[in-house]
Amino acid sequence: MANTQVLIIGGGPVGLAMAVELCYQGIDCILLEQTDGEVADPKVSTVGLRSMEYCRRWGISQQIRDAGWPVDHTLDVAWVTSVGGHEIYRVPNPSYRDRTLPDYTPEMEQVCPQNWFAPVFQNFLGEYPEGVIRFLSRLDSFEQTNEGITAQITNLENNTTETIQAQYMIASDGARSAVRKACGVEAQTFHQTQTFQSVVFKAPELGTQMGKNHAMVYFLVNPIIQEPLRAVDGDSLYRLILKPQEDGTVRDAIEAIRAAISIDTPFEIVSNIPWRLTHRVAEHFRKGNIFFVGDCAHTLSPSGGFGMNTGIGDAVDLGWKLAATIKGWGGDSLLDTYETERRPIAVRNLEEANANLQRTQKRAIPEAITSDSPQGEAIRREMATGMERSGVKREFDAPGVHFGFRYESSAIIPDGTTPNDDPFEWKQSSYPGCRAPHAWLSPGQSTLDLFGRGFVLMCFDSTPKTEKFEQTCQEKGVPLTIQQVNNPEIAQLYERKYVLVRPDGHVAWRDDALPKDVDILIDCIRGEKLLHKTSLLATS
Question: Which CATH class is domain 406-537?
Answer without folding.
Answer: alpha beta
